[in-house]
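Hey, can you fold this?
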Amino acid sequence: MFRLMALLGGMLLSSALLAQSLPQPVLTALQKGRVPPEALGVYVQEVAAPGSTAPALIRWQAELPLQPASTMKLVTSYAALDMLGPAYSWKTSVYLNGSLDGDVLHGDLIVQGGGDPHLLAENFWQLLHQIRAQGIRDITGNLILDNSWMQPQSMDAAEFDHDPTRPYNVGPDALLVNFNVLNLHLHEQGESLSLTPVTPVALQTSVQVSLGKGSCSAWRDGLQPQFSLIDQQIHLQLSGTYPRGCGDQSWMLQPYPLTPQEVTGALFRQLWQEAGGQLEGAIVAGSVPTTAVVVTEMSSLPLPEILRAMNKHSNNVMTRLVMLTLDHQARQAPASAAAAATLVQNWFARLGIDTQGLLIENGSGLSRSERISALQLGSMLKHAYASSVMPELLASMPVLGVDGTMKNRALNQPVAGHAHMKSGSLEGVRAIAGYVLAASGKRYVVVCLLNHPNASQGVSAQDVLLQWVYANG
């Protein structure tokens, strides 16, 4: 009896020691990447029945608040599913203020944004055709763009990393069409480079680019785009160098410093003209007057599909709009980023999770101030797995080695295809969070937050961790 008790005690002690340390393969991978274990917060816990007190498989510096990068999107996603419900959708509405004489509107047309996070150019085209279907062709007044759904933003796209044309730096807007991004096609022909817009917008271009030597993997680095708005038309002056022999490329750019209103207005003019319409007035900001009447409206995709597009491809501005929606719905007032952050912070506490050290700014992870611990994020994921919206959250996450931002991770490992995992990446930050279905049939919450100047060299250690959980969980 004494020997049995001693044996059981030794097994419990061994399990406890394991939970307080990192697996040796992970330590070896970290050493190769010159990343100290002290730079990590790790939490691995079986997703057991509610109320289970099973010890964590790994709990390494799990209480340490760290920068989560885009794994913070999982917090926003679960909060949205819980507070808005999986059937929630956004509406973009169109009004007229004036009189309709045949197919001529003597007055203004108003497009009111409702914060739709996924209002693509093709959806906007459809909305305009819905307007045409109501018998409106020519507009003698102005096009009024109403973004009063949210409070004015002071965000500067150049502030985060001084690269404001990058799509990930787009700020939120109530009427954000095509993520405020232009899709441009670059074509190399002989000794010259031509540029054609794929996004249906009237674009005047001036290309003064020389072809030379360089790596095709870094073809963007030598190009300097400069956008301006002249007579309500977008102009692009492109200069710099382009590596010879790199061929055709697709280039996604935010036309900084133009505002979303200016870009949406240019899109409207082009698409309205293509639809056979005419706009005589200007494009201005404003709100829906009390004398206006509804022309038509368009509903977005439902929330689960929005989250799938958002998380699979780690879209920052979509996340920020989802976050703002939580506040708009809660207060039925223009959405505030600060109020939304407080709302989510309070919601997190209502889950019964300690919020000490938790700091939410915009909910997307594109932030240097946001903080969360591996234990907090892992506990939230464990709570989510026992909730009624678990299928929607799980389906929104990239599948390891299969799609989204995790498509090229752990490709030659057995764990590939057996993990729904959100990644996060900033300079000095690499993070993963999600679920692993182990070979044993047990499912585990896995969170690994890494903050270190050599963080990019720690990605392989995170993949090793996922494989270790798959094999040993």
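Oh, and this one too while you're at it.
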Amino acid sequence: MSEPFSVAAEGTTLVGDWRKGARNVCPLVLAHGFGGSRRDWGAVVDALPADHSVLRYDQRGFGDSPYAETPYSHADDLLALFDELDIARADLCGMSLGGSTVLHFALDHPERVHRLILVSPLIVGWSWSEEWIALWKAIGRLARADDMDGARQAWLAHPLFDQVRGTDNEQYQREAIAAFHGRQWIADAARPEVSDVERLHKLEPPTLLLTGERDMADFRLIADLIAGAAPEVTRIDYREAGHMLTLERPAEIGKAIGEFVA
């Protein structure tokens, strides 16, 4: 049974739920990707042992956690969540944007992280390819022109979701994007950060890196850099899989995560 919670963090409130189990001393904290919510982890959590302690939360501006104009850092928000909920140390798992959140947190606060799991991760301060920038700018232009429906359709057509289209999970992805307000496409108050690429060699926690061999080139390169530069990384590269491993391979990654943190 999961218990709901809410935590104040620099002008907003982080909302989530915590299934407190007896299996692991350190809870497993899950951070979702851009435009998503804690609900994206549903099938992955189902694949974990039922007595495993799991905390899911909506990052600022997504799901039930309100957007705010206050300058912020997702990693600082996570620190506020740790402190408010009296979590001394946890296993951290992040998907895409959530991957950059937990990686940045682990670099800033290694003493608070037992093990780290990165699923198709982004990285703070990444220099995007021309292909990515062009696609992102096209979505932003629609959003700033007050055509949010058009922006959502352009996001749904993004190559990130190529391996989801035509599958049983396509409807879930459509509904998730339809629920996203899209304010971050217009402007985002996230504070500028120095790139974490230069700090990867300092990453202390043992790390599980889960990737799809058909993910976009930017994310493939990010994963290669993490695998090559961080000291203790175990990588699983799923054949025929793309970016959205939480939808494409939830049972497989749930099993891998459960075994890694056991």
